[in-house]
Amino acid sequence: MEYTEANPLTLTQKSSCACGEHDAEGFPELDVRVIPHAIRHATIFGALDSLAVGSGLVIIANHAPLPLLAQVDQRYRDGAFEITYLTEGPEEWKVQFRREA
């Protein structure tokens, strides 16, 4: 299947790729601490854009992701995501994004 605007790629919990691996139960986790700062938010937005309704993603950060959450609010004004803090510091924050629309 080819990516087009009418046919976007989606992130699913179970992969059908040939590698033989699959995601664990629950939403996949993206540890953003290992992503270079210059591309961190772009990487997160790429992952969020790929989520189908009902699926989700958990990001792991080393600080409260308030600037990211402000950007998410601006970028997805239609209430596309339910956002829940799973862990709130002091050394690790986990934030769950669940696609609502």
TrEMBL record:
Residues 29-99 form the DUF2249 domain. It comes from the Bacteria. Pfam families: DUF2249. This is DUF2249 domain-containing protein. It comes from Sinomonas cellulolyticus. The lineage of its organism: Bacteria, Bacillati, Actinomycetota, Actinomycetes, Micrococcales.
